[in-house]
Amino acid sequence: MTDLSHLTTNFSRELTACDSLDSLEKIRIHYLGKQGLITAQMKLLGTLADTERKSFGAAVNDVKQYISETIEYQKNILETAAINARLASETIDITAPIRSIQCGTIHPISQATEEITAIFGAMGFTVAEGPDIEDDFHNFTALNTPETHPARQMHDTFYLPEGSDGRKMVLRTQTSSVQIRTMESNKPPYRIIAPGRTYRCDSDMTHTPMFHQVEGLLVDKHITMAHLKGCITDFIHRFFENDNIPVRFRPSFFPFTEPSAEVDIGCSWENGELKIGAGKSWLEVLGCGMVHPAVLTNVGVDPECYQGFAFGLGLERLAMLKYGIADLRTFFDSDSRWLQHYGFPALDIPSLIGGLTR
Ligand code: DAH
After folding, report:
1. How far is the CA of 288 from the centre of ligand 1 (A)?
2. 343 lines ligand 1 (CB under 6 A)
3. In whole angstroms, what is the distance from residue 248 CA to residue 261 CA?
4. 262 lines ligand 1 (CB under 6 A)
5. Strand blocks (E) in 119-239
6. Could you tell me which of 155, 150, 206, 201 has the C-alpha nearest to residue 177?
């Protein structure tokens, strides 16, 4: 039997010195744990005579209750203090100025590609692709442009070292190569567009060594020039969002089409400013024609059964006309101010907000 008042005094002293939940837990174990001082006193009870057991038992119970309640109380105080300390160290200064957020934009080239793809997509065209590094056969020969053909000179081709298999390699000068690749690896009918990068060794106000084209190819039975004219006219009206734009098909020459045409749209110049849609002037926007029988033969398609049309347009040119961009070279400067001005919002936030509040 221990002097309980002595034990209580010791407990109070230890508690006063205790400043953490860890040391409080140690105190609890010291007194109330399995090997604890109070527990030891409880175990003693069985050895005592009846009268002694009653009075000492009651006293031990009182001390035990006092110690456990005091520890519980102290635990609350320490836990609250810990939370308050954490809150104080983690405060957020909501008056601090926000960092400015630079939100990117969709490049006009990407935007125009999306718009053109959507228009032809609605007409049933799918998107086809081919490599930027192309062999001479797909870029020229199969397109009815043999090595001696004068049309080759017009392309200012970037020639690359020969491939290990002896193939002559070039950076493709036109997306027309994708026509050949599509027809080689699929059976007719075909209805594809091929947007992509093209390369020519040329650089000035209206030429950059890399630019973008969209190729189109439709081959099926009973396809005529009327289909070509309808398709292209419809495309131009939708792209410029104006059904009244005059469209003119002017005879021209491409080795891979016969007949060939260049397509002009009506426009006017007022005070040096270009107005699309009406007036006395014409502006060339793309090349097209009926697929040359030799091209179909080159890819194993019988020209007696199948006919079709093809077209190729310069993406930058169309984007400049639609979005009012004056200098071609600015497309590739990566000037963020230009992109902020001519770019398109990546997220259509106004319509999102409208959608949420409506
Ligand atoms: N490949 C031609 C060029 O780069 C554009 C073109 C014209 C493509 C007529 C065609 C076409 O498919 O039929 O100048």
Report:
1. 6
2. no
3. 9
4. no
5. 126-127, 133-135, 159-160, 169-171, 190-199, 210-220
6. 155
Per-residue pLDDT of 39-59, as tens digits, reads 998 888 888 888 888 888 899
Residue in 357, 268, 280, 284 with CA at minimum distance from that of residue 317: 284
Taking residue 160's Cβ as centre, other Cβ atoms within 10 Å add up to 13
Paired with 48 in beta bridges are none
Pairwise CA distance, residues 219 & 210, whole Å: 29
Q: CA 167 to CA 185: how far, in whole Å?
A: 19
Residue range 19-39, pLDDT digits in tens: 999 999 999 999 999 999 999
pLDDT category at 278 given cuts 50, 70, 90 is: confident
Tell me whether strands 281-291 and 257-270 are parallel, antiparallel or unpaired. antiparallel
Distance 109 CA to ligand 1 centre (A): 19
The DSSP symbol for 272 reads T
User: Is the pLDDT assigned to residue 15 strictly greater than 80?
Assistant: yes
Distance CA 307, CA 126 (A): 19
* Predicted pLDDT of residue 282: 94
CA separation for the pair 308, 292 (Å, rounded): 9
DSSP 8-class letter at 92: -
Mean per-residue pLDDT, 172-191: 98
pLDDT at residue 191 greater than cutoff 80: yes
Identity of residue 126: T
pLDDT attached to residue 352: 45
Whether the per-residue pLDDT at 358 is higher than 60: the answer is: no
Residue count of the chain:
358
Kindly state the tokens that stand for 264: 């002009």
**Two structure tokens written together for 159:** 């020639």
Distance, CA 251 to ligand 1 centroid (Å)?
A: 13
Q: Which two tokens stand for residue 64?
A: 């035990």
Whether 272 and 326 have beta carbons less than 8 Å apart is answered as no
Ligand 1 atom closest to the Cα of residue 256 is: 13
How high is the pLDDT of residue 206?
84
